[in-house]
Amino acid sequence: MVLAETLARRFGDLVAVRDVSLRIERGEVFGVLGPNGAGKSTTIRMLCGLLDPSSGRATVVGHDVAREPEAVKANIGYMTQRFSLYEDLSVVENLEFYAAVYGVARARRRARVDEVVATTGLSDRRRQLAGTLSGGWKQRLALACATIHEPPLLFLDEPTAGVDPVSRRAFWERIHEIAHAGTTIVVTTHYMDEAERCHRLAFIFRGTVLDVGAPDDIVARRGLRVVELDARDPAAATAALEASPEIEECGHFGRLLRVATRDVDPEEVVRRVLGERGIEITTLLPGRATVEDAFVSMVREDEA
């Protein structure tokens, strides 16, 4: 569905994207993960045919993004990170407008609008002005408009920014429902818990892809191991562990310290480092390395 080869985009002297290569298969929920300013949105805009690449090439749904941008736009759905619908139109009026823009046949349009309203739970808000909807309902409407023409490929750019946790969970359930129905979905996010909901991920930092793969595979490739501990003197324990070159990361999670190492046994390191300083450990339990751990580790290595 998407094949990008060494994509780059410059704005004058600023290199927003320097070398991005991706292959996204049909039916995937593919996450593009990175901090603000990493180049995620610029990459998505190139793949949507909204920005010409400065170099490299990409095909999306079989169309070249530089030579056939209009064909790309006609075969995708695109939801921006900011609510961009018409706030002075009702829910149904927005849907009808986007159905017309995307070329949904007039004979099919009414039935398609009714179908989308029902599946997104917007039935009770059909006549409500879009501008008066809460953040979660605006998000549902934006997704409905982006999929009104049943595109084979859907781009979601930071779709849950500023949305409450309950709405975020409901939104992700809807994303997977759409994917199960056959639509390929590409979603950018900087929420690490959301990244773990994707089938595969690309980590982007400073406009470059650091790694691509399934969340568990990416974590495994980093060789990270985690323990969680409680010590009699948490401040002294933190200082001692952070000073050790064998410790990848040490952070507070409530009353516990969460310690990550790379390719070495974290329990052995923690007991040795704290034992040498006479710091008593009250509990020490194995933890789970996450996508966030892997991403932070990659970013710090890249910066170093």
In words, what does this structure look like?
- This protein has 304 residues and is α/β, with parallel strands linked by helices.
- The protein folds into two domains: 2-218, P-loop containing nucleotide triphosphate hydrolases (Rossmann fold, 3-Layer(aba) Sandwich); 224-288, 2-Layer Sandwich (Alpha-Beta Plaits), CATH 3.30.70.
- Helices cover 37% and strands 29% of the residues.
- The chain has eleven helices and 14 strands.
- The chain has helices at 40-47, 69-74, 91-101, 106-119, 135-146, 165-180, 192-195, 215-222, 234-242, 266-276, 291-303, and strands at 2-11, 14-24, 29-33, 55-60, 63-64, 76-79, 153-157, 184-189, 200-205, 208-213, 224-231, 247-253, 256-262, 281-286.
- Strand 7, helix 6 (165-180) and strand 8 form a beta-alpha-beta unit.
- The longest helix has 16 residues, at 165-180.
- It is elongated, with a radius of gyration of 23 Å.
- The model has no long low-confidence stretch (mean pLDDT 92).
Short structural description:
The chain has 304 residues and is of the alpha/beta class.
CATH topology of the largest domain: Rossmann fold
Strand line-up of the largest beta sheet:
6-7-8-3-9-10
As for the number of domains, it is 2
CATH class of the largest domain: Alpha Beta
Structural class: alpha/beta
Rounded to the nearest angstrom, the radius of gyration is 23 Å
* Low-confidence sequence ranges: none
Shape: elongated
Detail the topology: elements first, then pairings:
Layout: E1 2-11, E2 14-24, E3 29-33, H1 40-47, E4 55-60, E5 63-64, H2 69-74, E6 76-79, H3 91-101, H4 106-119, H5 135-146, E7 153-157, H6 165-180, E8 184-189, H7 192-195, E9 200-205, E10 208-213, H8 215-222, E11 224-231, H9 234-242, E12 247-253, E13 256-262, H10 266-276, E14 281-286, H11 291-303
Parallel strand pairs: 3-8, 3-9, 6-7, 7-8
Antiparallel strand pairs: 1-2, 1-4, 4-5, 9-10, 11-13, 11-14, 12-13
Helix pairs in contact: 3-4, 3-5, 8-11
